[in-house]
Fold this protein.
Amino acid sequence: MARMGGRRHLKTLAAPKFWPVRERAGVFTVKPRPGPHPIHRSIPLLILVRDVLGYAKTAREARKIIAEGHFKVDGRVRRDYKFPVGFMDVFEIIDTGEKFRILPYPSRFFILHPIGDEEAKFKLCRVEDKSTVKGGHVQLHCHDGRNILIRVSDPTRADEAKPYKTLGTVKISIPEQEILDYVPLEEGVIAIVFGGRNVGKVGRVVSIRRGMGRRRSIVELEDPRGERFQTSLEYVFVIGRDKPMISLPEGAWP
């Protein structure tokens, strides 16, 4: 496997396969800056603007319009052309008013899914871990690198944060980062797969078979057509209870 970390530069051949840069003759491509998403699950803002959206023909042009502040990620203007954009991020083109959510998609790994103004005001984050900080408050560590503080009224009553479990999903406002809703990972919820051979599939969780760690734990899901499939617990992202909290590509969910 080609080495992707530990260096400032990234060769085109070592870039993730879903990046649309293979046809370019250059030896090197843009390496995402360390940030909210890992390299294998993100795309640099420059490549998104130049190769996916087609707003520039060259890297120089893309860097210039990004530096001018024409794009927002999760409600904040991003001027760094190396900024990594990943799953569930809300991407906005300020000049046109277009808004998109980065969603996993079969075969293409991810797509820019158009969303409305109301939906662009919130984001879903998977809770990867949680810890207790000074004052007895609980901090949630999310999949996109952000930390959300759950303040408890009494330091001796940490049970106030018990409902928030790892691998559950919090719905937060952006950019304020206030919690609007929470859905735990359990049987009966709706989830989307964001990795592996079943990437992009949406289904209702039928069963969770725990193993040694997330990668060896198996989740069985049932899609809207009644067909069942399995994936690793590592790739399951809860998106709703009775219905998805976000809009999905046509045909993904009735």
Observations:
- Helices lie at 45-52, 59-67.
- The chain has a mean pLDDT of 91.
- The longest strand covers residues 122-132.
